[in-house]
Amino acid sequence: MKIENILASELILTPEGKIYHLDLAPSQLAETVITVGDPGRVKMVSKYFDTIETTAEHREFKTHTGTYKGKRISVVSTGIGPDNIDIVFNELDALVNIDFEKRTEKSKKTSLDIIRIGTSGGLTPEIEVDSFLISKLAIGLDNVMHYYAKTDKIFIREFAQAFINHTDWNPDNSVPYVVKADKTLLKKLSSEKTIEGCTITNVGFYGPQGRVLRAQLQDQGLNEKLKSFEYKNHKITNLEMETATMYGLGRLLGHSTLSMNAIIANRASGTFSKDTKATVDALIRYTLEKIVE
Ligand code: R1P
Prior knowledge:
Elements: E1 32-36, H1 39-46, E2 51-58, E3 61-68, E4 71-77, H2 82-97, E5 98-99, E6 104-105, E7 113-122, E8 132-140, H3 157-167, E9 177-180, H4 183-189, E10 194-201, H5 222-228, E11 230-231, E12 234-240, H6 243-253, E13 256-266, E14 271-272, H7 276-292
Parallel strand pairs: 1-4, 1-7, 7-13, 8-10, 10-12
Antiparallel strand pairs: 2-3, 3-4, 5-6, 7-12, 8-9, 8-13, 11-12, 13-14
Bound molecules: 1-O-phosphono-alpha-D-ribofuranose.
1-O-phosphono-alpha-D-ribofuranose binds next to strand 7.
GO molecular function, one term: uridine phosphorylase activity
Protein name: Uridine phosphorylase
Catalytic activity: uridine + phosphate = alpha-D-ribose 1-phosphate + uracil
């Protein structure tokens, strides 16, 4: 059934006809989208573009649309966390799949390629600082996806159940879910320079990722349990805050998503990259080249 007459309170448009948070008009978005967390990273990507046709900025959402070696690409910052992914993914989808004038879902859908270039912490010693990790699978410990219907087809239930059993998961927390990367993008962006991994996405940087400064953790042993978890030869490799939500919403809305992680910390050895900017820049150049290959 086609969704019609979407109210002004639900599909919020500016007086210029732009989507509310991203402040973009449909014509300003390319079908290949790179997402970055940090608004400052948008320029680190678009400085490699041949031309920039659109710049937009509202709150933490900054966009540059242009071409790289002739291919039209938008780079959009999401800020930090799964809650922002909910906003960005719904608005990116609205830009291509909703007719803003009629406030009606379009009959012909557009599928975007959405690629995250983010930073992340490796969980085990093998995941070296400054390496490039592609999330083949993601375990979501956030709750964004649980507010949506029809997730049955996209969640890998047995994998999530094995994780729940292994970690003796606290039922007061959100129920973990497992989602896959888009196969075609995964193949296209992989090479001998990348490693594949299973990424944990959580809602916070400190407690939710097992970091203690002063506040103590509810489950002090969680990161050790993450390290020892294994399901059908998959081991958890890294922790960050966006990937699973991206994979979940991308699949639900019919877009292809992939998460590229610059590993800037190793939680097992307690080490941190000596030059995160150089590592992120190298991942940006690698990803742009792979997109146009
Ligand atoms: C935390 O510092 C942020 O860095 C990581 C996490 O996922 C979180 O968003 O990714 P980005 O560098 O892409 O923001």
